[in-house]
Write a structure and sequence with these properties.
By secondary structure, the protein is α+β, with helices and mostly antiparallel strands. Helices cover 27% and strands 23% of the residues. The chain has two domains: 156 residues, 2-Layer Sandwich (Dihydrodipicolinate Reductase, domain 2); 91 residues, no CATH class.
Length: 252
């Protein structure tokens, strides 16, 4: 059960957790692997993204989300890398923190108990959704504002007003596809580009009207603020109290 492609979520969920690895990071996670070729801006963790949970924040509460692999974790960390020759002087850590709906979490746990054998009976929820929203955005952290969230807070009622018969998730995703196709049709000779290389103002002009507006706010949050480790000091979990922005502090 999911609010979007069941097979798509399955494919992303069973794939290794992948993330852009920042130059400020001190230690690699357990079972993490660095790449030996290419820009080397990412690491992979030898476990499914669906079982790799991290702390994050959306308006207005803390969440636990899955480190589902996604192209943005590669392209954003690559795009923002500052190079001196072949040495990376600066790069942020970039990763997804995806918290799906309760029914999808239950289905993913059942899938894990099935040794990752995909269910034959699949269902994408749509008309039966009565309440809820998709808080889809970017959480920027580590600057003087501590944290800042920007994105879409589209709810099920507004999404149905925009496009009848659709959910917040499908409207948000399809609007981005529409915007990319519209831009590509106007610029057929630009070649292969990733989202970070597109003119964002023009692309947002196509997509924003389907997002219920853009929400942007500062957040007084870091991954240590609400942490309650019942067995701290005994469970071998690494916590860096001096630098809250270390990835180890985000891991659940």
């Amino acid at each position: 059960v999911n609010t979007w492609s069941v097979e798509g979520f399955y494919e992303e969920g069973v794939a290794p957790a992948e993330l852009g690895w920042g130059t400020h990071e001190k230690t690699l996670p357990v079972n993490a692997y660095e790449h030996q070729s290419g820009p080397k801006n990412q690491i992979a963790i030898a476990q499914p993204g669906a079982t790799t949970w991290v702390r994050s924040w959306v308006p207005n509460f803390e969440i636990h989300g899955m480190v589902i692999r996604h192209g943005e974790a590669f392209t954003i960390s690559d795009h923002l890398t500052v190079w001196n020759g072949d040495k990376a002087l600066y790069r942020p850590t970039v990763h997804y923190a995806y918290c799906p709906t309760n029914e999808a979490i239950s289905s993913m746990k059942e899938l894990e108990m099935r040794s990752w054998d995909l269910h034959k009976n699949q269902r994408i929820m749509n008309d039966e959704i009565t309440e809820g929203d998709d808080r889809l955005g970017v959480l920027l952290m580590g600057h003087p504002y501590k944290s800042w969230w920007t994105g879409s807070l589209l709810n099920i009622h507004d999404s149905r007003k925009l496009i009848p018969g659709q959910s917040a998730t499908t409207v948000q995703v399809s609007s981005a596809v529409y915007a990319a196709v519209a831009w590509a049709m106007k610029n057929p000779d630009k070649g292969l580009l990733v989202p970070d290389e597109l003119p964002w103002r023009e692309v947002l002009g196509y997509a924003e009207k389907y997002w219920g507006g853009i929400h942007s706010e500062a957040a007084d949050w870091n991954p240590l603020m609400n942490r309650k480790d019942l067995f701290e000091g005994w469970n071998n979990k690494k916590v860096d109290r001096e630098d809250p922005w270390q990835f180890t502090n985000f891991l659940v």
